Amino acid sequence: MSKTHLKGNPVNIVADIPAIGSTIPEFTLVGTDLSEVTQSDYQGQWLLLNIFPSLDTGVCANSVRKFNERAGNLDNTVVLNISKDLPFAQARFFETEGIEGARAASAFRSTFGEDYGVQLADSPMKGLLARTVVVANPEGEVTYTQLVNEITTEPDYDHVMEHLGA
């Protein structure tokens, strides 16, 4: 079981995040138009999963904006922003922010958090998703992961972008 922190306090996560070199776990999420979103939708492309608790926090919203700015236009790369926010809230955020290069998907009715080892097991945020980045190559192999040690801080964007060769 992995750990992260919330304002310095340890928070358990239900399992371990996918290992580098493993095949990306299958998932079925809900898109902003209520359609199913699966990992197979992105076969043959680099897939950057930006996983976070909720768009209703400044840090989460910033991560969506920054990954859209920095990775949204990379060749053969998809940025998929995943939280347990309802698809309606995700769509409203993307429309209000004018975000077009990245995509959003909701884990509100899936086992994504458990399957990816990113669901918070305790703390006031129990049940939400830990701030995590998972990158898979076009063959579906996990090539990079980053479990952010403090939920209230943003991911290391530079390290992610270096990994993607940007």
Provide structural commentary.
One of its GO terms (molecular function) is thioredoxin peroxidase activity. Homodimer. This is Thiol peroxidase. Thiol-specific peroxidase that catalyzes the reduction of hydrogen peroxide and organic hydroperoxides to water and alcohols, respectively. Plays a role in cell protection against oxidative stress by detoxifying peroxides. Its EC number is 1.11.1.24. The structure is a single chain. The protein has 166 residues and is of the alpha+beta class. The chain has one domain: 3-Layer(aba) Sandwich (Glutaredoxin), CATH 3.40.30.10. It has four helices and nine strands, in the order E-E-E-E-E-H-E-H-E-H-E-E-H. It has helices at residues 58-71, 87-97, 112-115, 157-163, and strands at 3-6, 9-12, 28-31, 36-38, 46-51, 77-83, 103-106, 132-136, 142-147. The strands form two sheets. The protein has a seven-stranded mixed beta sheet with strand order 4-3-7-6-5-8-9, with helices on one face. A two-stranded antiparallel ribbon has the order 1-2. The protein starts with a strand and ends with a helix. The model has no long low-confidence stretch (mean pLDDT 93).
